[in-house]
Amino acid sequence: MNRRSAEDTRRIITDAALTVFSKSGFEGANMRMIAAEAGISVGALYLYHRNKEELCATVFKGLFKEFKREIDEKVLGLSDPVEQIRAYIGTYMEMAKTHREFIYTFNRERGFTFGVEWKQGFFAELRALVDSIIRRGVEQGVFSEVGKGEATKVLMSVLRGYVVSIVIDPENLFSADACTDILLNGLVKRYGPEERANGLQ
Q: What is the pTM (predicted TM-score) of this model?
């Protein structure tokens, strides 16, 4: 088997595993089901992955790479920090919605602590990206000066909360536009001098 076909087979296996895990959950899935979905023998599947746990970790890491690729395409090409934040939030939430069934079934069974070390590495990359966008926005006078890293922590915590809501409260998910507007503009209504004098008396 040449290098190209091996890479194609790995991709097919990962896609098949994502489909099976999304439909059957981690506990309900097995290597035979994944092999059947991929159109290969069980023996061939074991040539690439030793067990279901290893394959599941590969699926997660593949999703993280896909997410990072989407972020790079949608965010890094923009020059306006406001539009970069808007694109980041929209891309994050769209990816979560795209893989909603996998997130729901997997975290319901395995919890959010599975693979915590490589998840932390992934979020560290995202945190550095958001930090750089906000820092540049502050330097340009677009964003208000906030405590070091605090705005990034708030933004990322809100989006992680969105992922949790997919699992425990899917009927009350907020929109990307609402999230962006509230994070960028806040809840307090801004008054001009005359409005403040007339409206707050």
A: 0.80
